[in-house]
Amino acid sequence: MTRWFPIVGGISLNLALGSLYAWSVFVLPLEREFGWNRAQTSWVYTIAIVCFAATFIVAGKLQDAKGPRICAFLGALLVGGGFALSSLTTSVTFLYIAFGVIVGVGNGFGYSAPTPVASKWFPDKRGLAVGLMVGGYGAGSAIIGPVATRLIADYGWRSTFQILGVAFFLMGLIGTALLKNPPAGFKAPAPSPAAAAKKRASIDIPTRDMIRTPTFWALWLAYCLGTTAGQMMISQLVPFMRSVGLTPEAAAFAITIAAVGNAGGRILSGALSDSLGRLTTLKVMIVGSLLVMVSLGMGVNQIIALYALVAAGYWCYGTQLSVFASTTADFYGTRYLGMNYGALFSAWGVAGIVGPFIAARVYQVTGSYSYAFYGAAVLACVAFVSISMARPPLSAPATLEPVRA
Asked: What percent of the chain has pLDDT over 90?
């Protein structure tokens, strides 16, 4: 049972970090007060994503060398502090720094901690364990979105930033206390025969060698273009739902629907990938994302259909965040997983630039998100082709020397 305590810690930490997905509830209040346009506010989320992904590589290396707790604590401190500082906003530049940079960097440090811990404790159920931890990140907005909406209505957006900042710091401290790597000599229960047959990586491959493999770049491109649709929806969800006629309350509730889909994809599809296979699971979800984008682009405005499409789109997106992490551990081992997944995760950071930019720019020019959704569908097609070119290594590439402990 002791190996489940780090899972609880990872979920608590990621629930706090997942506040980034609730950013869209602050967009309209800030635009009303300061007169900012959609392109200006979309940059807050984009900067946070870029800082998140860029920091993740450095944090992954720190996690590999020093363990998960220092990264978890830095994540809790920076995310909580960034939210508190955001309450002092008087200009969009200040918000870019307080929320975009500080909260983004905090996410990079915090998010680097749980996945390697889960992969090391649960080699027999890696998809499920990683899915549970990162599922906390996706589920965070299910709680934070409605709570933040209510707090904004009752106390204003400044007080809401402050209240959430304190809450996120305390949740991060719980994660810091519970996250730890397995002790030396730890042996997990034997995996099932089906799972054992799918095991590929026989040695740990350093990042410098991993990035020389064609499969890494096939995974990178698929990760980037496959998650562009999700990043687009996250950055514009509430404004998009309002643009098709939903009330503020109904639009805010879409965040909860999205979070359920996001967390469900991370957890259930993560577990499914243990038996179905990582690449097969990813292919199915990329195709699903493509279909959702086409449907949204066609102009659906019936509330139940919209909620269903949002849940499905976030499910496909959340699955990729879970299964790409497990795939990295399977293909390249766990010793260097922090930095290895950090390198692959940079693809998600690029998607965080591309998706929100396309959505904001298209809406500003056309007054609609339809062509943005069609564009995301085209990118998903390319992602499917790329993931189809990835080949799981039966062992380390012959050109690489075995890594010695």
From this structure: 34
Ordered by where they begin, the domains of the chain are: 2-181+203-388 (1.20.1250.20)
CA gap 186, 121 in Å, rounded: 8
Contacts of 30 (CB under 8 A, 6+ apart): 36, 41, 89, 95, 157
What pLDDT band is residue 402 in, cutting at 50, 70 and 90?
A: very low
Entry field: residues in the chain: 405
The whole-number pLDDT of residue 87 equals 93
d(Cα 136, Cα 267) in Å, to the nearest integer? 9
| Tokens read off for 39 | 């392109």
What are the respective helix, strand and coil percentages of the chain, to the nearest 5?
80, 0, 20
Nearest 5°: the CA angle 53, 227, 237 is: 95
CA distance 147 to 166: 14
- At 57-110, the pLDDT tens digits run 888 888 888 889 999 999 999 999 999 999 999 999 999 999 999 999 999 999
Inform me whether the pLDDT recorded for 197 exceeds 50: no
Q: Tokens standing for 339?
A: 């930095």
Interacting residues of 369 by C-beta distance below 8 A, sequence separation 6+:
236, 240, 243, 296, 297, 359, 362, 363
